[in-house]
Design brief:
It comes from Paenibacillus dendrobii. The protein is of the alpha/beta class. It is built from 19 helices and twelve strands.
């Protein structure tokens, strides 16, 4: 992301529970959907795509074909199935096609490259990068539309977002639908049983890891196949802490500014990963396994800590042992007395620049950013929405309440979602993996990434 300096810290915690959270398969009564907004126009298909015309009934009528692409990962697909069904019911003359699945990003890539994309896209999962899509001219410029856009409740969309949209050279191309915080998880029940202290900073994290290792358990496991987990939860917060809690260094890195990667804060953060490695705290299995494998080892108490996002409990809901209680802190890399750094990430939605039915796509945006749909998201995905809400009366899981506690604390540094250049991001991920297994030094990590940044900034 080129820049996103507005933090929206006051609204971020509220996103964590617009309604009582539950895992996939919640039996709670489904949220009632508001009636479609009344208007004196109808949308009809023409050779140019869609067109709005007056109708006798005065209701907005969408017609034609409308295709939605969505990735299915840790949040599941129950919400997508429900919201699409709700939208279809509200617009019976529209032919809605859903293209979703765990491999949908790869499957749809030829169509994006070929200029024949779906109308609407949920930007989440591997091999889909919003910055790259903007640079490739694949996403619709939503800047002017969003200034006055209202959801189907009549609320101005920008007023109800917990975290505002990112900007690319001052323009908006996608809108955050889901807000996640990276962090470190552990089992509270296990720690209480073993008498292990829960970490609050780097020193306490290392101290308890020594005790954990002495007890015969590996302290730390990460997802070597997808190193953005350890980068998001360990490296980037450490960089911010070492940079006097100034998040601009990450924003400069996202802009591929070479000098940002050469700052002392980066080297300080990299040395903390080296410290984990040299103390023997990192599970040697990490380097070759994926997210679910590392999460399973964590749930089996083979490893005490894991860096992850807030979706973890829902993603592994079927495998969580009885009595397991998720502990969570956004960062452990700050020194004693230092501020916690919450590195947030978002899953965004956008309209394709070459969409054939932009009217329907914009109407769908107005539909999904309603409070009722935010409530349904919370219930059906077990994860926070990016729409402001009240957590005080919720039945949110303990780890979500822990996240809310940190995100509302004045001593927490909240980092807005940042997307790096795809090639630079890949270089950082590969270099971090190599660093964790002593293949390279911190200095060589910087050299590798600087080369990638130079190429990206040309």
């Amino acid at each position: 992301m080129v820049s996103k300096t507005r933090l929206a810290a006051l609204g971020i915690a509220a996103l964590l529970a617009v309604a009582p959270l539950a895992g996939c398969g919640s039996s709670k009564e489904e949220a009632k959907q508001p009636e479609p907004a009344k208007t004196d126009e109808t949308t009809t298909k023409t050779d140019e795509g869609t067109k709005t015309e007056p109708t006798d009934s005065g209701t907005k009528k969408l017609t034609g074909d409308f295709e939605i692409q969505y990735f299915v990962g840790g949040y599941g697909d129950k919400w997508w199935k429900k919201v699409i069904a709700d939208f279809q019911a509200a617009n019976p003359d529209l032919k809605v096609k859903e293209s979703g699945g765990p491999k949908i990003n790869d499957q749809m890539k030829p169509r994006w490259v070929g200029g024949n994309p779906p109308d609407f896209v949920y930007i989440d999962g591997p091999n889909l990068n919003d910055r790259q899509m903007v640079e490739d001219g694949q996403l619709e410029d939503l800047t002017d539309w969003l200034k006055d856009a209202k959801n189907i409740d009549g609320d101005k969309i920008t007023d109800i977002l917990a975290q505002p949209p990112q900007e690319f050279d001052g323009k908006v191309y996608d809108i955050p639908l889901v807000l996640n915080s990276w962090g470190v998880f552990w089992d509270k029940a296990l720690f209480q049983e073993k008498g292990w202290e829960e970490p609050t900073d780097w020193q306490s994290f290392l101290a308890v890891s020594d005790k954990i290792k002495a007890a015969g358990t590996t302290p730390f496991i990460h997802t070597g196949k997808y190193p953005y987990y350890i980068n998001g939860a360990i490296l980037y917060p450490a960089i911010v802490s070492a940079n006097n809690n100034d998040i601009s260094i990450l924003q400069d890195m996202a802009a591929s500014k070479v000098e940002a990667f050469q700052q002392p804060a980066v080297m300080t953060a990299l040395k903390k990963i080296v410290e984990l490695r040299d103390k023997g705290f990192i599970d040697k299995a990490s380097i070759q396994i994926n997210h679910t494998d590392s999460q399973m080892l964590f749930l089996q108490h083979k490893d005490a800590f894991i860096p992850n996002g807030l979706w973890l409990p829902n993603e592994m809901a079927k495998d969580v042992p009885g009595g397991f209680s998720f502990g969570f802190i956004p960062s452990v890399t700050q020194d004693a007395g230092g501020k916690v750094v919450a590195n947030t990430s978002t899953a965004n939605v956008a309209i394709a620049k070459n969409a054939k039915n932009k009217e329907a796509a914009k109407a769908f945006l107005e539909f999904v950013f309603s409070k009722a749909q935010a409530s349904q998201w919370a219930e059906l995905s077990g994860a926070p929405s990016n729409i402001k809400g009240d957590i005080s009366a919720s039945n949110a899981p303990s780890h979500v309440k822990d996240a809310a506690k940190y995100l509302t604390d004045a001593n927490t540094v909240v980092v807005p979602a940042i997307t790096f250049n795809a090639d630079v991001d890949k270089a950082m991920q590969d270099a971090t993996d190599a660093l964790t297994i002593s293949k390279i030094t911190p200095e060589q990590w910087v050299e590798r990434v600087v080369e990638a940044a130079k190429k990206a900034s040309k």
